[in-house]
Amino acid sequence: MDHHTSAIVLLWSVIAIVLGFLLWPGGKGRRLARQIFAVAVLGFREGLRLKILWTVVVLGLIPGILAYLSDADGTHAGRARLVLNYTLASGEFFGAVLIVLLSALSVAREIESRIMHTFGTKPVPRWAILTGKALGFWALDLLFLGIICLTSLLLVRAVPMRPESRSQDKLVQSGTWEDLSRNVLTTRTFQDADSESGMKYKMIKPDSSYTWLFTMDPERSKGEDVALRFGLSSTQTFASHIEDLGIRVAYTDTPEPLIHFDKKTVPQDRPFDLFIAGKDIRAGTIAVSLRAPKKYAYSPSVVGAVRAALPADGVLINVFKAFLLMALQGWILAFITTCWSGVLSFPVTVAMGIILLLGGEMSRHALELLQVGAAHARDMAAAGTGAGMSEEITAQLRILLSLLPDFRAGGGPTAFVEGTYVSGWALAHTVFSMGIFRTLGWAIPGVMLFNRREVGR
What we know:
Elements lengths: L4 H18 L5 H21 L2 H19 L6 H37 L13 H32 L19 H7 L3 E5 L10 E3 L4 E8 L1 H4 L4 E9 L6 E11 L7 E9 L4 E5 L7 E8 L10 E12 L1 H27 L4 H37 L5 H15 L21 H29 L5
Helix pairs in contact: 1-11, 2-5, 3-4, 3-5, 4-5, 4-8, 4-9, 5-8, 8-9, 8-11, 9-10
């Protein structure tokens, strides 16, 4: 995102100037803003009276409650991840359903029942009517998402209150809330090891060792624990764990180790963390040494990499970012479907909302598959088998998919559950490109057609 930073700052500055000009006291923009707000309040009150809102709220809470009552994998960590996955995924799905039904039902029904004719007697532009309606329905979606996110936080906070049904992995302790928050619910940014060759993965032969060096900065860790994330495998691919592995973590200028295991059994092909206490973090270089199992018959070689994982966001800010991403999805659907509901019938508008929802959820995965397919096509063409047409079709499909709103942008609401860090700049870019640029591109044609339609003239 670094090479886009200046462009994002410039565009958001222009948007702020335009909004300030429209809302300046005494201008026409201020009167227009009051009209849009009045329509939004009417739409919000109308939605509160509909039974579908509270039906969706109840349906959205059920998956998270069932996840909390379930056993998951028998550990607090597994149950917490399951609760967050289910509550946020249900909020994303049911919030989209709520928005599509409300926006498609309201304007189309008001036109058919001639309630929309009353707006013809008021000096309110048609685009302002649609904008106010969209904002009112979006406010209902925000209320629903707020309930979902608050419920997810309460359920996750209550996870340690239930006993575990099986003994937890000693490498992922989550018996107390502090352990659960540190080991499971905190996203981290990664720092690669200092290496002139840039090599991240290293093969370690039996009874030999390799050392990764990391430069520690107390300002970056902010007094919190630093995780050393290990990703290891061995030549014994059938085994689930690697036995008799030696691990030593120490500052290069101090002989006393911070972490030392002579013979440790660790997971194979599954990342795990070892934590350095925040009080032990100081300026200096930390050496992380791995020693493969000692030589014996059929002793394995170990292939692995180590990265330093610095604390970034806790569970509160992660859930808040998930709320923002779900709110962005609701805004996109509310604005587009509301603008088109003035032209299309109720069933067609609902179908359009479903297509946008499915396309927006799948476009990122489809683009990734197309990129893999394009690379494969180039390899085939280089081999002389001929794949030029396939690559051309792939490029065309990529352009078409890029026009759809991408609801997976920014990682998606549940990305942090798997440890993915979502930065503020990624959110800002997503809000602009999806919430403003592509949303207006889809909504403006609907507004233009609605302006040409005979409604109460």
